[in-house]
Automatic annotation (TrEMBL):
UniProt name for this protein: Cytochrome bc1 complex cytochrome b subunit
Biased composition (Basic and acidic residues): 532-555
Cross-referenced SUPFAM superfamilies: Transmembrane di-heme cytochromes
GO cellular component assignments: plasma membrane
Topology class, membrane: Multi-pass membrane protein
Domain Cytochrome b/b6 N-terminal region profile: 24-250
UniProt cofactor(s): heme
Transmembrane portions of the chain: 57-76, 126-145, 151-173, 185-205, 217-243, 264-290, 333-363, 383-403, 423-443
Pfam family, one: Cytochrom_B_N_2
Top EC group: translocase
Length: 568
């Protein structure tokens, strides 16, 4: 039995290159049957909104991070063995330094393009972590973490933690005075661990600090282990997005059952490819014009010295700030000294931040009782409590970040550093709750404004005088698109607990749990300004004091149909 391969369609009379490509495609398709998969997925729809580009910035900066890192590994020597420097940087000649520091100086002054690639690598790290942080905030404020995307949120948190860890390990590799000071802080945190801190420090550093092994141990972690984990999580993240479909903003024709946007190929591929080069160009521009980490100024690491007037990279600045403002608390338990002033900011605080952050999708699901799938994003104003919590966390983080540069601010403001530290200690306790309350009130005010717009239309500034002498302002109706955008969210009502007993008088065993959930639900949704019902909308238009003229109500009626269909 013999088979005949049919000619590749569309290649008759075509250019030889096209024919060759067609034969290759046909060869691959006959063996892995990829054409059906490609046809199905090349037209996959992606929504178009600027906020979705934040994740792409993180992805493209990570790609540049990997490429520049490969370049640097060709010349860097991860060794703490000491040599006398005789390179191109004259002020350092004849000084005994480690091979790691010497190879970094060679990269900066002798390797063609080495300094540029060092700068590109450093700026790529900063942009990667900044874009990922803002991307996570966008997901949080818009509720994009809700079912079925809880695991993707957890992947995002892990990516952020791994990015910070890898950034710090790379920051520590050059073995200059600044990076050595950072490692000394880490060693202090390790020593603060009760009972086993000393043993952990000896194990990590290969002996008494600074030891001879820390650079050679951090190097494979930095270039192999953590990047491999990040790459695997990025792939898993993209695969889940592809399978679950992308979220989109609410509006006309947009529901939890569809995605409105442009096809992956060719439109999205072309836009993403162009944006990739824009990100690359922007990072290269910063690397070429803005100096970062000039380690030849600091000199080689010496445990007897410490840098002054310098701060760590922004993504670990909050930990440094927590150490600086923590009161000098210590406990003596059974002869063991427990240094809370180091243990709490170095170990307890990161856990208190990361655990609730990772579990938040499930915590909110528990509070609201909402276990449905969501593909339409929330406007932050429509979930005031979640938005307030997010802003409170941002304020808390920024205050710790400022505390990491308290000496810098003391110098600039010409104030005692203790005054600044004391002010920050009180601010860290008082300002996050205040930021939560202010943000919640702002969100509620915006909700009331949206409700008034839907009911009465948009203010025009035109003042009308009635025959009785009454002055009123004429309102213009909203378009269907505007009305849909303002009413696309659901009506959210607090959960009510079930009865304490059933009709037979038997106590409800879950009543206490239901009451707790109801209290949390009232905290979450009790003050929400609900969007108008269709009856309210129709009543306003019929008895609206002549604000909207006849013939202008068709858009409002269409909006009323949408509101009615979206009520819970």
């Amino acid at each position: 039995m013999s088979t005949t391969t049919p000619p590749t369609p569309g290649t008759n009379g075509a250019h030889p290159v096209v024919k060759s490509a067609g034969r290759v495609v046909d060869f691959v398709d006959q063996r892995i049957t990829a054409s059906n998969w490609l046809k199905r997925n090349m037209r996959k729809v992606f929504p178009d909104h600027w906020s979705f580009l934040l994740g792409e910035i993180a992805l493209y900066s990570f790609i540049l991070l990997l490429l520049s890192g490969v370049f640097l590994t060709l010349w860097f020597k991860p060794s703490m063995a000491h040599v006398y420097y005789d390179g191109a940087y004259v002020p350092m000649r004849g000084i005994l330094i480690s091979e790691a520091y010497a190879s970094t100086l060679d990269l900066s002054f002798e390797v063609r393009g080495g300094l540029l690639m060092r700068q590109v690598h450093h700026w790529s790290t900063l942009v990667f972590l900044a874009a990922m942080s803002v991307h996570m905030l966008r997901i949080f404020f818009t509720g994009a973490f809700r079912k079925p995307r809880e695991l993707n949120w957890l992947i995002g948190v892990l990516l952020l933690v791994l990015g910070v860890a890898n950034g710090f390990t790379g920051y520590s590799l050059p073995d200059d005075l600044l990076s050595g000071t950072g490692l000394r802080i880490i060693e202090g945190g390790v020593l603060a661990v009760p009972v086993v801190g000393t043993y952990l420090s000896y194990f990590i550093f290969g002996g008494e600090y600074p030891g001879e092994d820390i650079i050679s141990r951090l190097y494979p972690i930095h270039i192999l282990l953590v990047p491999g984990l990040i790459l695997a999580l990025v792939v898993a993240h993209l695969m889940m997005i592809w399978y679950q479909k992308h979220t989109h903003w609410g509006g006309a024709g947009k529901t939890d059952e569809n995605v409105v946007g442009y096809p992956f190929f060719p439109i999205y591929v072309a836009k993403a490819g162009g944006f990739n080069f824009i990100v690359f160009g922007f990072i290269f521009l910063m690397a070429a014009t803005i100096q970062v980490n000039p380690l030849w100024f600091w000199g080689p690491y010496d445990p007897s010295q410490v840098t002054a007037g310098t701060q760590p990279d922004w993504y670990v600045g909050f930990l440094d700030g927590a150490l600086r403002v923590m009161p000098p608390w210590e406990l003596d338990i059974f002869g063991y000294n427990l240094t809370l002033s180091v243990l709490i900011p170095a170990l307890v605080l990161p856990g208190l931040i990361l655990v609730p952050l990772a579990l938040y999708p499930w915590l909110e699901q528990k509070v609201t009782g909402d276990t449905r799938e969501h593909h339409v994003l929330d406007r932050p104003r429509n979930v005031p409590v979640r938005t307030g919590l997010g802003v409170a966390f941002i304020v808390f983080y920024i205050l710790l970040w400022i505390a990491g540069g308290n000496d810098f601010f003391a110098t600039v403001l010409n104030m005692p550093v203790n005054w600044i530290s004391r002010f920050l200690q009180f601010s860290i306790i008082l300002m996050p709750p205040l930021a939560f309350w202010i943000t919640k009130r702002i969100c509620l005010g915006l909700q009331r404004r949206d409700r008034d717009k839907v009911l009465h239309g948009r203010e025009t500034g035109t003042i009308m005088v009635s025959p009785s002498g009454e002055f009123t302002e004429r309102h213009a109706p909203l378009s269907v698109g505007e009305a849909y955008a303002l009413t696309a969210h659901e009506r959210r009502e607090p959960i009510e607990p079930g009865p304490a007993t059933d009709p037979n008088g038997i106590p409800n065993p879950a009543y206490k749990r239901e009451r707790r959930q109801a209290r949390l639900s009232r905290f979450y949704f009790g003050d929400v300004v609900q969007k108008p019902t269709r009856e309210e909308l129709e009543h306003t238009h019929h008895d609206g004091h002549g604000e909207i003229t006849e013939g202008d109500t068709r858009d409002q009626s269409a909006a009323g149909d949408h509101i009615a269909s979206g009520q819970q």
